[in-house]
Backbone:
């Protein structure tokens, strides 16, 4: 899938990358981060114009994120019924309760596995759309320029960067889950202690 999409990005340029990241913003599991890193490398080689590619990608992914927010906002009962008990939903819910707007920001580029649930939860909890779009846009700008910039910087070595970042993202998610687990266990012990006394 990645190789096919990479070839299409080379053939069709920034508009195709925009379509892919838009679909990714809707929650379809596509290798968007790989493509963004590769697009940076392609920009360095002169295959893609960096400014147009970055602008189209940022706008496209923000529109995709906004639509997934709208699903949560306007179809909250169905969304909760469909996703409410899934592990990613529960992780995103905990992150959202704990970090609020920062969970929107960091899930754009650091813990992307929970990006869609965070979008949906933002909608179902009626989190103000203006705030959502602000933190979403900031996070997506970091994603496009940060990851695309690494691709540009490392050029032909972009695949090594991509592999490292995918492993790093998994590590960050693991650490977050571990910390949440410890806090939940501690809260449970405190409640148990309070009930006994």
Residues:
């Amino acid at each position: 899938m990645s190789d096919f999409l990479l070839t299409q990005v080379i053939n069709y340029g920034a508009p195709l990358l925009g379509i892919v990241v838009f679909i990714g913003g809707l929650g379809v599991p596509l290798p968007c981060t790989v493509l963004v890193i590769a697009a940076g490398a392609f920009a360095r080689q002169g295959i893609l114009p960096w400014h147009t590619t970055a602008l189209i990608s940022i706008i496209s992914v923000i529109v995709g994120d906004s639509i997934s927010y709208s699903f949560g906002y306007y179809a909250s009962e169905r969304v909760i019924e469909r996703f409410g008990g899934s592990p990613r939903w529960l992780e995103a819910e905990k992150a959202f309760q704990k970090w609020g707007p920062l969970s929107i920001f960091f899930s754009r580029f650091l813990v992307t596995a929970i990006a869609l649930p965070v979008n949906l939860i933002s909608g179902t909890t009626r989190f103000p759309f203006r705030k959502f779009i602000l933190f979403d846009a900031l996070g997506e700008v970091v994603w496009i320029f940060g990851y695309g910039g690494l691709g540009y910087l490392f050029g032909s070595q972009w695949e090594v960067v991509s592999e490292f970042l995918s492993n790093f993202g998994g590590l960050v998610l693991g650490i977050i889950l571990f910390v949440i687990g410890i806090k939940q266990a501690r809260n449970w012990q405190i409640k148990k202690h309070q009930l006994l006394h």
User: Anything to note?
Assistant: The mean pLDDT is 84.
